[in-house]
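To illustrate the input format used throughout this study, we show a single complete record. The first block contains the structure-token representation of the backbone; no residue identities are included at this stage. The design step must infer an amino acid for every position from geometry alone.
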């Protein structure tokens, strides 16, 4: 028993400890267009909201620092019509210090764990923007960043397979 504990302790000491710190968060770009007010549309309409999410990550000049961004686009249309009620686009970024992640796991870590940390703040901003824009606040559903990452990998592999060999 003591021998097994010693092996586990040695293995735990050999594996690097993953460290992640959020160094900062900011809105790089934001746009809210209240199309309904611009057109002078009034009355009771049922909104249908579509959400598009794109992720991006890049290394910063400082060692172990990365910038991760969530680009969100919400389009609200009147149910049954093609009339746009509002458009909301936001590019929300976080600066992260990440250490102890194996090299082959850095990209998935940045594209899954970092957005997961940023998302509650982005959700709050979207809720406030839509409410302040004169609409009921949009409370975004949780995003499965693992599924989003896997779908993007599958899309890239399919695109790669479609390219003719040159």
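Output of the design step:
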């Amino acid at each position: 028993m003591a021998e097994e504990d010693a092996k586990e302790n040695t293995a735990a000491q050999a594996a690097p400890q993953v460290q992640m710190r959020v160094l900062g968060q900011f809105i790089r770009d934001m746009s809210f267009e209240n199309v309904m007010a611009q057109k002078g549309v009034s009355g009771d309409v049922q909104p249908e909201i579509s959400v598009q999410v794109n992720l991006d990550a890049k290394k910063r000049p400082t060692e172990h620092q990365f910038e991760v961004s969530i680009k969100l686009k919400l389009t609200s249309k009147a149910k049954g019509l093609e009339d746009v009620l509002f458009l909301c686009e936001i590019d929300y970024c976080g600066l992260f210090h990440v250490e102890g992640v194996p090299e082959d796991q850095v990209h998935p870590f940045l594209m899954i764990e970092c957005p997961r940390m940023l998302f509650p703040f982005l959700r709050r901003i979207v809720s406030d923007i839509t409410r302040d824009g004169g609409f009921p606040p949009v409370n975004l559903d949780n995003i499965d960043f693992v599924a989003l990452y896997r779908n993007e990998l599958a899309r890239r592999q399919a695109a790669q397979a479609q390219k003719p060999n040159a």
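Structural context for interpreting the output: The chain has a mean pLDDT of 87. The two ends are 59 Å apart (CA to CA).
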